[in-house]
What we know:
The chain is mostly beta strands. 0% of the residues lie in helices and 52% in strands.
Amino acid sequence: xxxxxxxxxxxxxxxxxxxxxxxxxxxxxxxxxxxxxxxxxxxxxxxxxxxxxxxxxxxxxxxxxxxxxxxxxxxxxxxxxxxxxxxxxxxxxxxxxxxxxxxxxxxxxxxxxxxxxxxxx
Length: 121
């Protein structure tokens, strides 16, 4: 079972990108799927999470109102729509799966490979 993250790229400040996290196999039932990001020289930080069974979501304060996490059950995929991007959003974005409603990377046991988002000023 793997998670495949995609959709990163180079965008100007104020632009938009949509990241995808596709799972091979049905692993999302009763799970929490999250997006985290890691900027150069920094720790991996929480961005957003969604509970698969209830559509509950939670966002980091820094992205609230700009990013939206949502899922497509039929496609077994979680998306992160990122609008009004800022240079400080530049990072490698990772998707991950866990079982706890948590913003800590320690609670996620399956990680995708990461996709780079670069926002130019």
